[in-house]
Amino acid sequence: MAVSKTFFLQPEEEKKPFSRKSFADNPNHGWVEMELERSNPARPGDLKEAFNVSLISPDIVNF
Fold it and tell me: For residue 23, what are the CA distances in angstroms to 1, 5, 11?
């Protein structure tokens, strides 16, 4: 919990290198800035930040 709190309290410039756009192999992985996403397309962006976590490389997992 402390790592998450520390990350989100940083200035936006410190978080940008971890944005979803910086992970070309997986566009759903990484930091999502405030007002980027919206649950209703007719409304302004959501007042939230997020850090989506997913596998960077599916080759890492052996089934």
Answer: 23, 22, 20
Q: If DSSP codes are grouped into helix, strand and coil, which group holds residue 52?
A: strand
pTM above 0.85, yes or no: no
Instruction: Report how far residue 18's alpha carbon sits from residue 44's, in angstroms, rounded to the nearest whole number.
Output: 24
Tens-digit pLDDT profile for residues 6-58: 999 999 999 999 999 888 878 788 999 999 989 899 999 999 999 999 876 66
The letter for the amino acid at 38 is R
Q: Which two tokens stand for residue 27?
A: 């566009």
Name the token pair of 45.
């962006």
Which residues have C-beta within 8 Å of that of residue 21, sequence separation ≥ 6?
A: 27, 30
